[in-house]
Amino acid sequence: MAPRATLPPHTGPLVFQPLRRRHCAECRRGPLPLLVLEDGAPRCLDCADLAHLVFVPRGDTALTRRSREESGLSAVVVRFNRRKSRYERQGVLVEEAALVRAEQRCLADAEARRRRRVRDARRRAVQDELFVQAFATEIRRLFPGCPDTRAQAVAAHAAERGSGRVGRSAAGRALTEGAVTSAVVASVRHLDTPYDRLLMSGVPRYEARRRIAPVVEAVLRGWTVEGLDSAG
Known about the structure:
Elements: E1 14-16, E2 36-38, E3 41-43, E4 53-57, H1 61-70, E5 74-81, E6 86-95, H2 96-142, H3 148-158, H4 170-173, H5 177-191, H6 195-200, H7 205-231
Parallel strand pairs: 1-5
Antiparallel strand pairs: 2-3, 4-6, 5-6
Helix pairs in contact: 1-2, 2-3, 2-5, 3-5, 5-7
InterPro entries: DUF2293
Domain DUF2293: 138-223
Protein name: DUF2293 domain-containing protein
């Protein structure tokens, strides 16, 4: 085996997963899947008084930590990595009752995290609904002739969480006139003009926008004028 200087930091007994066949120097049993070195000689877990412990493989940091906290006796299990020329942790040996208690603690935490995720999702849903309503109100203020259902649809689309759309930008969250207008213009462009068909036919984006600009302006002007007329 490699020099002990290559061993990872540990407290308590150290158990090895041997790379080659080894037999217990005391009871002669083998080959051993796990062994302890005492005075340079291999000992099986029975002879080393560790056979009552159960193995917890690496991977679940919380379970490993809590298992060791709950266990009066524990051991670190390592295996030599020839390519890296060092020992690497494979897991720990702990008392079975300790493992059960650790698993119960982890399950309790998992349930707490699930409940927190549900609460957070509800809170975000309420926040999103309030934001959509505020966005729709701002649309109706800037474009009073815009139908309520359309304003609501534009706001919901622009403000969708995780979409990256203008409603989720800093300007959008601040309900700036530019951001709100951009959301309305985008809706008009896609729903009230042949813009999408132009793109599908191979017309470059900037050229397509130029062609449909008069229609967009007419719709926005209508929504503004209609609102002013009804207000008068």
